[in-house]
Structure formats: C-alpha cells, structure tokens
Design brief:
The protein is α/β, with parallel strands linked by helices. The chain is 35% helix and 18% strand. It contains ten helices and twelve strands. Helix 1 packs across helix 9 and helix 9 packs across helix 10. The chain starts with a strand and ends with a helix.
Length: 291
C-alpha cells in the first residue's frame, strides 16, 4: 500500500516540495511506498480537507500559507515547538490521530548554524569575544516567529523590525528579543540579517495590481544597508533564487543563505517525520537547487 503525502495551501502551484520529497523517496528506494502531491485548499475548504486526511489515511501533510495557524484547531495534538510558535507546517497521521509539528524554525536554525560554523559560540556569555553575534529579523509574521525561535535556540540575541510596531513587539516579547523601528532598519549594527518579509519575491502575475504590489518590488527590504564581509544575509524567499536582498548582500561581500536552504532543511525534518527514515539530504538539495 502506498502512503500519500502532500502539501496544502493557497496557492501551491509554485511549490517545490513535491519535487523535493519525491526525489527523496526515489533516493532511498521508497518510490513505491510513498508519493507526494499538492492540493490547493482555500480557507473555506480547510475543515473538509482535514477530515479527508483522516478518512483517506493520508500519512503526512505539509501546510503552507494561509493555513499554518488556522489548522491547529482541527488537530488532535501539537508538538511543543509548534505550540509555542502558534503555527503548524507539518501534520503526521497515525491511524487517524493528527499531530502538528513546526519544522520551519529548524529550516532556519540548521543552515545558520552551518554558516556560523566554529564561530558559533562567540555569541554566548561564557565565551569572550570582541564581536558577539547579533541578529536583525525583518518582518513579524509566521516566518519571523520561526526565525526568532531559531535564534533563541542558537543563543543569538536579536531585534525585530516591521512596519507595524505592535507586531514586531509581540514577536520580540514572545521569544526574548528587542525591537527596532522600521525606519531605522538600514542602520542596525546586526551582523546577521534574516529577511522574513515577502519583499523581493517573484510574481507570476502580470496584472497592474501585481506591478504595484511591494512584495514584487525589485528592491531589497534594506535598500541602504552597508554590507560587510563579516555579515550573514539569510533569505526566506526561494523564488527567485537570488532576491534583491541577496544580490545586495553578496555585492557587499557578505555571506548569504538562500531561501532554498530553509525549504531544504524544513523538508528534511518533514521527510523524517513522515517516513521514520533518515533523509537523503544531498538528493533533496539537488532537487531544490535544480530550477
């Protein structure tokens, strides 16, 4: 019997998750045991979709916008990290019992820890340093909460900035950070900057409305930032592969982490939860990087 996994959201046609997970199944010889698809589910359809997951015995579900918060009330239990984050991006079905997890924070923590490498402990209180690590999170939505959770897990102090001060303050208070006004964001001294805003994402729309949408602006959310070689720029957008934020950071000599890395590592944890097998990371990486 083949176990079905899929991603639900609205929209989902752009998602690389089916390609990534199916590549992983082939790499470990599970292509006959698992298949991964995509289903567009509107907000109104969410209750019926969750009921179908139970009825059809769908093994695992990746949850994307706009359902990561709303789905929680339809589940039987959620893991502690998902509860604290207030968002679920992964559902595992064990004989009709649906448990929610959040792997988004891991998708940020893992590549960031790798980028920092041996210098990671510079940011800890018991390790003397002339340049402690500190981070700035751009945005205050679900990805910002995942970034704050990841930074806290890595013992890296952080500030949050967003157009809406109250939302930035909520993220900072929840995870132990501070806030910075949006107008001052370019002058922040943080050596790690994580963009969780949608500014710079790729649009497949050609309507006049899309042309005026700031999310599709060909500009970095830090248009006047002075980047340096000891900076790290982390992007959570993976389409396009190199956003204006990343292009500007790379031009200044900063280290960059592309949005595809977050997609990869959150998917690695999902694969392990769905299959209870070790993930074939390089096969998954190759599927993400192949555009």
């Amino acid at each position: 019997m083949t176990s079905i996994c899929l991603i639900i959201g609205d929209p989902v046609s752009h998602s690389l998750s089916p390609r990534m997970h199916n590549a992983a199944y082939r790499a470990v010889g599970l292509e006959s045991a698992f298949v991964y698809g995509a289903a567009r589910v509107t907000t109104a359809q969410l209750p019926d979709a969750i009921a179908a997951i139970r009825t059809l015995g769908i093994r695992g579900v990746s949850v994307t916008m706009p359902h990561k918060e709303a789905v929680i009330t339809h589940l039987d239990s959620i893991d502690p990290s998902a509860e604290e984050l207030g968002a679920v991006n992964t559902i595992v079905n064990e004989r009709g019992v649906l448990t929610g997890y959040n792997t988004d924070w891991y998708g940020i923590a893992k590549p960031l820890a790798q980028a920092i490498g041996a210098d990671f402990w510079r940011g800890c209180a018991d390790a003397p340093s002339t340049e402690p690590l500190n981070a700035l999170i751009l945005g205050a939505g679900g990805a910002a909460r995942a970034a704050a959770f990841a930074l806290r897990s890595l013992n890296i102090p952080f500030s949050v900035t967003a157009r809406t001060d109250d939302r930035a303050r909520d993220v900072a208070i929840r995870f132990g950070g501070s806030t910075l006004s949006w107008d001052a964001r370019d002058t922040a001294s943080a050596n790690i900057v994580i963009n969780t805003t949608p500014i710079g994402m790729q649009s497949k729309e050609t309507t006049p409305e899309a042309a005026q949408d700031e999310r599709y602006s060909p500009q970095s959310p830090l248009p006047h930032r002075q980047w340096h070689p000891r900076n790290i720029a982390f992007e959570t957008i993976y389409a396009p592969p190199e956003t204006p934020f990343i292009v500007a950071a790379r031009a200044g000599g900063a280290s960059v982490i592309l949005g595809g890395q977050m997609l990869l590592w959150q998917g690695v944890r999902q694969f392990e939860l769905f299959t209870e097998r070790e993930a074939p990371i390089e096969s998954m990486r190759g599927s993400v990087e192949k555009r």
